[in-house]
Amino acid sequence: MSNPHAALPPSGPGTVVLDIGGASGALVVHTAADLAGRELEIARRGEVDAFLHTEVRERRLLGGTVYAAVFASLSEGEYTLLDAPAGAPSGFVIASGRVTEVNW
């Protein structure tokens, strides 16, 4: 899904806070630079309506720049990223207290 708003500026080290633990985990989707500004939507497995979205942003880290969308807190369970590019992983299991990372 495209974002009708201006892209958010790059984020720096320590600016993303994950809320994991208990029954929550997180999902980080690493992408190519050309997806910066694109909003990714997620739904519970088997559902077609997104309940949460986040933007792919430039992330300036100590080790270099990456592009990623971060879903900072998701209840444990199975999810689907909607409108995934062809061949990209779209289904995920989120485990409590863990960060799931995928590459698009």
Helix content: under 10%
* Element-by-element helix/strand order: EEEEEEEE
Count of structural domains: 1
Q: For the residues shown, what is the average pLDDT?
A: 87
Strand content: over 45%
End-to-end Cα distance, whole Å, is 15 Å
CATH class: Mainly Beta
Low-confidence stretches: none
What is the multimeric organization of the chains shown?
single chain
Would you give an account of this structure?
The protein contains no helices and 8 strands. The radius of gyration is 13 Å and the shape is globular. The chain has strands spanning 24-31, 39-44, 52-55, 57-61, 64-75, 77-82, 91-94, 99-103. The two termini are 15 Å apart. The chain has one domain: Immunoglobulin-like (Sandwich). It is mainly β and 104 residues long. The strands form 2 sheets. Strands 4-5-1-8 form a 4-stranded mixed β-sheet, with no helix packed on it.
List keywords for this structure.
104 residues, mainly beta, Immunoglobulin-like, 4-stranded mixed β-sheet, 4-stranded antiparallel β-sheet, globular
